[in-house]
Design a protein that fits this description.
Length: about 140
């Protein structure tokens, strides 16, 4: 099972067995043994190195029903690419994108918390202020 998953992810990434072996720092023959289930007990360190370069995780390689990390090509259509290009052209930095992501995450958390805790009629409603600092 480990071997089949590694091979499927490797092929999806477009890597040859030689390329993945080089990236992960394992021998080509050892990786081949893993993929063909000749070696069916690789160390966690080896699996971690392989999983990293396949944008996956050890749990998935070991057979968990977790899906591997999302492939950028599967999510970012032309509209996303266009929005990102426009933002970069307008001066947004990686730090700006990270800050924006943190803001969205914070807002989602706040909304989930608000939904989980019903308001009592006698308490004063509070508000949160979020300050977004954007590096230039």
């Amino acid at each position: 099972m480990i071997g089949e998953r590694i091979k499927a992810l490797r092929e999806k990434k477009g890597y040859s067995i030689t390329r993945l072996a080089e990236l992960a720092g394992v021998s080509k023959s050892y990786l081949s043994y893993i993929e063909r289930n000749v070696q069916n007990n690789p160390s966690l360190q080896v699996l971690a190195k392989i999983a990293f370069h396949l944008d996956s995780n050890i749990e998935y390689l070991l057979g968990e029903d977790l899906t591997p990390k999302v492939w950028v090509e599967d999510v970012l259509d032309e509209e996303w690419h266009s929005m990102i290009r426009d933002a970069v052209d307008e001066g947004m930095s990686k730090g700006d994108f990270r800050a924006l992501k943190e803001l969205v995450t914070s807002n989602k958390w706040r909304e989930e918390r608000k939904a989980a805790v019903p308001e009592s009629s006698g308490k004063k409603k509070s508000s949160n202020i979020i300050i977004l600092h954007i590096d230039h």
